[in-house]
Predict the 3D structure of the following.
Amino acid sequence: MATVLVGRKDEINILDECYDAYRSHFVAVYGRRRVGKTFLIKSHFEGRLFFTFTGISNASLQQQITNFNVEISQQLAINNDEYVANWFSAFQLLRDKISKSKIKKKVIFIDELPWLDTRNAHFVQALEHFGIVGRI
């Protein structure tokens, strides 16, 4: 049974428009803490999330990358020899998994993104290179 979200009609309409569109979209959901942003995404896209990843508060770049390796190995079945050492190779691995998947629509959910863009992490640059940042 799907979760009913109250008071999120406009947000759900935007998410549905992006999901139903022919081209890919990058959607940033932002707002005050503890207002249900993560709940909105996970509830609305339940069963349709291709890959989810959550940054760790106050973690080093190496801890974030290790966390990414654990999540992608559990969710998308990578081998130990595919583990990545930086965000550029992380997004390349994710791109490879996307291209090999037979799933038509893929929702990738990156939560707590500011925690991932730590000093000298080059997260935003790697995300831009991944090709999903741009005008919607």
